[in-house]
Amino acid sequence: MSEYDQELDARGLNCPLPILRAKKALNDLSAGQVLRILATDPGSVKDFEAFAQQTGNELLESGENEGEFHFLLRKSG
């Protein structure tokens, strides 16, 4: 398990809510800190890849376990 500074539980939420909640959570973090996101929306995989590219935040890890997805995003800056 990787280290992270904050966790966001977006399970049960559909696009675009996981991204919007992650964006809000990242605003509260300092540059270099890591946000872990838990989601159940299969579309969130592509969403978080695109989000990372568009915002410059680094997608450190993404994975899936029994229909549950997790992502680690490092805040840019």
Textual characterization of the structure:
This protein is an alpha+beta fold and 77 residues long. It has one domain: Translation Initiation Factor IF3. A 4-stranded mixed sheet has the order 1-2-4-3, covered by helices on one side. Helix 1 links the parallel strand 1 and strand 2. The longest helix is centred in the middle third of the chain and has 12 residues. The chain is globular and about 30 Å long.
General form: globular
Q: What amount of the residues lies in strands?
A: 25-35%
Q: What value does the Rg take, in angstroms?
A: 11 Å
**What is the CATH topology?**
Translation Initiation Factor IF3
Q: What order do the SSEs take from the amino end to the carboxyl end, as H and E?
A: EHEHEE
**Regarding CATH, which class?**
Alpha Beta
CATH level-4 homologous superfamily: TusA-like domain
How many angstroms does the end-to-end distance come to?
A: 24 Å
Give the CATH architecture: 2-Layer Sandwich
List segments where confidence is low: pLDDT < 50 over at least 5 consecutive residues.
none
Mean pLDDT: 96
Largest sheet entry: 4 strands, mixed
Domain tally: 1
Q: Tally of extended strands?
A: 4
- The number of helical segments is 2
Helix content: 25-40%
Task: Please list the strands of the largest sheet in the order they lie side by side.
Answer: 1-2-4-3
Structural category: alpha+beta
